[in-house]
Amino acid sequence: MIKRILTNIMSVALLMSSSVVLACTEPASVCNQSANGSFALIKQSKPATIIVDANADPALQRVAKSFAADLKLVSGHKTKIKNKITNRNKTVVVIGVLGESPLIDKLINSRKLNVNGLADQWEGYQLTVVNNPWPKVKQALVIVGSDRRGAVFGTYELSAQMGVSPWYWFADAPVKQKKNVYVTAGTQSDKPKVRYRGIFINDEDPALSGWAKKQFGGLNAGMYEHVFELILRLKGNYIWPAMWGKAFHLDDPKNTILADEMGIVVGASHHEPMHRAHAEWHSFPNDPTTGGAWNYETNKDNLSKFWRGGIERMMAKGDDKGYESLITLGMRGDGDEPMSEGTAIKLLEDIVAGQRSIIENVTKKPAAKTPQVWALYKEVQDYYDQGMTVPDDVTLLFADDNWGQIRRLPTKDLDRKGGFGVYYHFDYVGVPRNYKWLNTVQVEKVWQQMNLAYERGAKDIWVVNVGDIKPIEYPIDFFMEMAWDPEKMTPAALTKFPEKWATEVFSKKLASDIGDLMTRYSQLAAYRKPELINQDTYSIGSHTNKVLHGGEFGEIMAKWRALSADLATVKSEITKAQYPAFYQLIEWPIAAVANLHELYYAAAWNRRLSNSYDARANYFHDIVEQTFAYDRELTNKYHQLKDGKWDGMVNQVHMNYHSWNTPTYQTIPSIVRVNGGANNIDVVFAKDNSQQGKQTIIEASGFTRNNAGKNVAWKRINNLGMSKAAMIAYPQGQPSSTIKDNVSLEYDFTTQSKGDISVVVQLSPTLNTVDNGKFYLAVSVDGNTEQLLAIDLTATGGAPNTPAKQNWFKAAADNRVTLNTSFSQLDAGKHTLKVIRLDDNVILEKLMINEQ
């Protein structure tokens, strides 16, 4: 780490020079130096004037003000926003929508601006430097959108390129001032490949909710303005607002208006159909259109009136379009629970038919003209698999298992009008354990699952549960960037993402090292989520009168301590301006989770030693108390950043869980002090070198030979899983292979003596996205008969004690799956283990060969 930092410092000028050269070769892209035909966005600290039509959509009026604020952050000086061209404007930035801006349409008609291919796109944009666009105007930078959000995304693309991170407010990412900023000559254009891309704010008590009350007085338009801006800067367009005990449209009526003005499409969670928050149902007990049983069979009339009110509110804007929304259909039981399974399929079909009838009646147009989504969450997917009929124009939203493994993907009706999407989780309240404290997400796993989803046809909606937003900035950034263009996020781009992100948020100088910290942290935090850890999670080794052996827990602690040491080295290079963002995004999560491991490690040794009245237990007793106190110090420091800007944001309970949803407050682990011993007695750790048997451990990426098939081959994905790399069949989404296809990896190994061997295949957890049953790979040794290994995990449905359900429970908690087999009577010497691809969506991490 230190060597890399020194290398970075020595070569920073070269790196900066290289990045400028690369940026300056792309058309219509931001460059810090002038080139032939380039546009001066900022010259000698003076930013260009912004032009937006007086009657432009409110989303454009707002983004023009936002862009002006960005120019001030970068230049240090204000700019002007005008509604028309004047002779004094030598250079201008024009923001408009194709067919809605007279200024832009005039440029097109005069053939000074070519926008071929832009019309009728969904959220497409084009950036073009136009010379002599109008009399006495030397140059214009024209940002034209195919629609209003296209223009917004094109504008924010410029902001990002000139150094204003999407996280400038929500994570205090610093903005470096520049005296000159140019945009190279030519044209740049882009458009999204996933139609709706957004977040679900969930599980927000007490963190986000408490913070919002302190800062804004509640989850109101003041707070949501920052949320909506963040989504748009990340090139998203969609939100499921905060749900539990919240009513987005009633808590602050300005919320609805603001979302529409800014260009955000408002939806609702899988539990909140027809533009209605569930909290509204219980808000008015004396209103005959609400309350009563949340049961369509017994309370159909009231529910129908309730839902109709939601659609009427959506249309209350006063035009024939209403507020831009994506209507959630269907129904779950009260409290987000399943309905009665015996009647649910026919009942759900009747419910949706009734809901669509309401939509038609209120909007005065066919239901298919109003965008709708049906979330196949938990048991609803099981009903779909059993034959539940879904109207063709409704988008089917498949879900993961709440732990990052997608349960099901399209297998039929791939050309359905409404298409398909995915509801994913970065945060969850439920079994086997709540996880909502901080970021425990590996972006490499997100990539693998969402790449698979895209290849299988889920291209219409990507929405992710982000809990409180704040502690999960890094994977949110990744998810939204990938959602914009999944095809651009190749395995190579995935590997580069951490450094790219660190460059955008901090600087090029330390980007490699910060990216490395985030990658290692994400891998360690995902090994087992913090809420699932206690003093009994990992084994500790033996102890003697002289030394202690750390065991498995000690090996894990060594990784956290190495990461913490490297964190300290990087921190020493962080500037004062960068530090608030560095603490939030890098230092706090690493320090907090490392400290939690230290606490439980010490608690484990305290119990072990105190059981034998060993005075060394007191040393660990003190460490537990110190780390428990330090946990609070880290939280308090976070809450004090930026004069208390984030007070209350990271106070989720994360310690000493005993079931999936307890405790409700922080408690220290049970520890004891041993009488009669000195507290400062020496504690010496030594590596446990005891014989562990004849075992060969092979990283999956350390193959000897890789045998490709006709359309698919095993591919290395760096940092996926718990190793340096994992292997997946790529491209993903391909049909199953046969043993004869020989899509395989071969691993040469040596046995020391003749006899039997056992083979353990370690995988990252995944699910069968085709039919929800078992799925397979095969292994063989020395070309002998292949043995099928089944991955048998069921996330929902079925009896709770079935092997598949128990397997899933363990796999989710452990974040790994192990498959076992054996081979008999191998001679001593060299052998070859072959792993053969059969079904898709298998992530191979490690192989362990044990001689019996």
Give me the number of helical elements.
Answer: 20
Strand residue percentage: 15-25%
With strands numbered from the N-terminus, the spatial order across the biggest sheet is 13-12-11-18-17-16-15-14
Molecular shape: globular
In the predicted model, the low-confidence regions spanning at least 5 consecutive residues are 5-22
User: Any idea what the radius of gyration is?
Assistant: 29 Å
Largest sheet, in brief, is:
8 strands, parallel
- The count of strands amounts to 31
The top-level CATH class of the largest domain is: Alpha Beta
Mean pLDDT: 93
CATH architecture of the largest domain: Alpha-Beta Barrel
Number of folding domains?
4
Distance between the termini: 40 Å
- What share of residues is helical? 25-40%
Structural class: alpha/beta
CATH superfamily descriptor of the largest domain: Glycosyl hydrolase family 115
CATH topology of the largest domain: TIM Barrel
What does this protein look like?
By secondary structure, this protein is of the alpha/beta class. The protein folds into four domains: 22-190, Chitobiase, domain 2 (2-Layer Sandwich); 196-489, TIM Barrel, CATH 3.20.20; 513-686, Methane Monooxygenase Hydroxylase, Chain G, domain 1 (Up-down Bundle), CATH 1.20.58.2150; 695-851, Sandwich (Jelly Rolls), CATH 2.60.120. The chain has an eight-stranded parallel beta sheet with strand order 13-12-11-18-17-16-15-14. Strands 5-4-6-8-7-10 form a six-stranded mixed beta sheet, sandwiched between helices. Strands 22-25-30-27-28 form a five-stranded antiparallel beta sheet, with no helix packed on it. Helix 13 packs parallel to helix 14, helix 16 runs antiparallel to helix 17 and helix 16 (511-527) packs parallel to helix 18 (579-610). It starts with a helix and ends with a strand. Mean pLDDT is 93; it is low at 5-22.
